[in-house]
Design a protein that fits this description.
There is one protein chain. The protein is of the alpha/beta class. It is built from 13 helices and 20 strands. β8 and β9 form a beta hairpin. α12 packs across α13. About 40% of the residues are buried. It binds S-adenosylmethionine.
Length: about 525
């Protein structure tokens, strides 16, 4: 008992000393080194004592500029911001907050000045600040009263004319003060049906970062399945309050368990689709703080894993009541899609492999570099086979049957026909064939070998068919374990060139890496 009291006293003193250092602005790294505590420990202590999860206690909110310099709207499906953005009061001290470039792009693309934007996971108020700057009305709610207090400070600034560019002054936007309130995203009872022009929100991810000290209703404490169940209430409410024909953008990332990936992004997309939404865009948001050299490089090869370096920004749309689509894209009819099989032996070279989940290669040797990375990383010097889905117009379909008896280490399925506007029926056929082929081929893959599927999203009649998600949905075989979801894209020099279609240009593909377990 006495010992417990002594321990308690020591721990209290330790915590007070840590908080004092935080107030002085000492870095977490230095605090960890000095007091022998982990980053997690410091994070929990701050959340407990301050009621919210912030990295820095002393932050200057002095405004240097109100808008980002050289901002251009994103035009493709890969969004990448090297700096997180520190214009207006954006400082990034709230943990897990999103870069203001994301809501800025979404707001500019999918709403007009004077329209009403809802963010039901307000956090430090990044979306609300952007709405104020861009002349949109905003309702932002958060379960945590302390987060709302911080957001109130962040939206409390004047739009002084010395901070405005000539173009801003010319456009003479009306300023609307955001409405911030404590509330629960699962119960938007105070909002009428069909009353919101745009939803733009960034949920906590299933039990990854905790935002409160276990406040009731804080979704950051729910584990995967419960999190998705609760998010289905949020999705239903979103569908109810959004006006027909309007958009709802949600940022979500994957997570890892036991060195395998949990496709949280695709699972959450299903939750919103089940609520009645259609998928208008599926944007990949790159993360830039990933280490790819030295220690990380060696361990990525040694333990065969990639650092998660992307998140998903699905942009859903509530269909118009008539069900009529305002765009019609022509799908080519290919006849059958035929897989062909090729088998080779490999010389494995491990130099210069990609170490994160985002692979970017020059356009002139994109396919070659992608193949090299897949084969060098996943064939482990053993044999590999590729199956390629090509298209042709003849009515004959001849599927290659495997004749060889020896086992391979890697089966690589490629689908180049997808880049040529396939039709719905091509896609349904492709998915059925993929499942059939994989079931047939698995016995020929070594234990601990890999199956890699290269696929991509396609747009049909104005909506995205998210094929990587659909493949993950159908491959529920017990002996396949999803190891990585990799995004591959070409070096894109002109990503901001304008695009008048109203849709983003799809510039990324996926590699779904499955480990074969027997
Ligand atoms: C990822 S953060 C949002 C960060 C925000 N985009 C920003 O830039 O500051 C998720 C937020 O959801 C809040 N939250 C958790 N459960 C909630 C719920 N049931 N209803 C509303 N907000 C909730 C957390 O308090 C946290 O502030």
């Amino acid at each position: 008992m006495i010992n417990q009291k002594v321990d308690f006293k020591i721990e209290k003193e330790l915590q007070e000393a840590i908080l004092q250092e935080k107030r002085r602005g000492t870095s977490d790294l230095e605090i960890g080194r000095r007091f022998g505590v982990t980053f997690r420990y410091i994070e929990r202590l701050i959340t407990k004592t301050h009621g919210l999860n912030i990295s820095t206690l002393r932050v200057s909110k002095k405004i240097k500029r109100l808008h980002p310099e050289d901002f251009k709207e994103e035009q493709t499906t890969v969004w990448s911001f090297k700096q997180r953005g520190n214009w207006a009061t954006h400082r990034g001290e709230y943990r897990g907050n999103w870069s203001p470039y994301i809501p800025r792009n979404v707001i500019l693309k999918y709403s007009k000045p004077g329209e009403l934007v809802l963010d039901y996971f307000c956090g430090a108020g990044t979306t609300a600040v952007e709405c104020k700057l861009l002349g949109r009305k905003c309702i932002a709610i958060d379960i945590n009263d302390k987060a709302i207090e911080l957001a109130e400070k962040n939206v409390d600034f004047k739009i002084a004319s010395q901070h405005l560019t000539f173009a801003d002054k010319e456009s003479r936007l009306e300023v609307y003060e955001p409405e911030l309130r404590v509330g629960d995203a699962r119960e938007l009872y105070f909002l009428q049906d069909n009353s919101i022009d745009l939803i733009c929100a960034h949920p906590p991810y299933a039990n990854i970062i905790h935002y409160t000290d276990s406040k009731e209703g804080d979704l950051s404490f729910f584990d995967l399945d419960d999190f998705l169940k609760e998010m289905s209430k949020v999705a239903r409410e979103s569908f109810r309050v959004l006006k027909p024909g309007r958009q709802c953008a949600i940022l979500i990332g994957d997570t890892r368990r036991e060195k395998h990936v949990i496709p949280l992004g695709f699972k959450l997309i299903n939750v919103y689709l089940n609520a009645g939404f259609k998928l208008r865009e599926l944007v990949i948001k790159r993360q830039h703080n990933c280490k790819t050299t030295g220690f990380w490089y060696e361990n990525s090869i040694k333990y065969n894993f990639l650092l998660l370096a992307h998140e998903y920004l699905p942009i859903f749309e509530k269909p118009k009541a008539t069900g009529l689509l305002n765009t019609k894209e022509r799908g080519l009819n290919y006849g059958f899609v035929t897989p062909t099989l090729k088998k080779s032996l490999l010389k494995r070279r491990l130099g210069k492999l990609e170490t994160t989940t985002v692979w970017i290669f020059p356009a002139n040797n994109f396919e070659e570099r992608l193949n090299k990375n897949v084969i060098d990383r996943y064939s482990d010097g053993g044999g590999y086979s590729t199956i390629t889905f090509i298209s042709h117009n003849s009515r004959e379909s001849k599927f290659t049957k495997r004749m060889e008896k020896e086992k391979i280490k890697l089966l690589f399925i490629k689908s180049p026909f997808l880049s040529n506007s396939p039709s719905y029926s091509n896609i349904e056929y492709y998915l059925k064939e993929i499942k059939k082929i994989i079931t047939q081929q698995i016995p020929y893959i070594n234990k601990d070998g890999f199956l890699v599927i290269q696929t991509q999203d396609v747009r049909i009649e104005g909506y995205i068919e998210p094929l990587a998600k659909r493949v993950v949905d159908i491959l529920t075989l017990d002996n396949l374990w999803l190891k990585e979801i990799i995004v591959a894209t070409q070096e894109w020099t002109d990503s901001n060139s304008s695009n008048s279609t109203g849709y983003l240009k799809i510039v990324h593909q996926y590699l779904l890496v499955y480990e074969v377990r027997k």
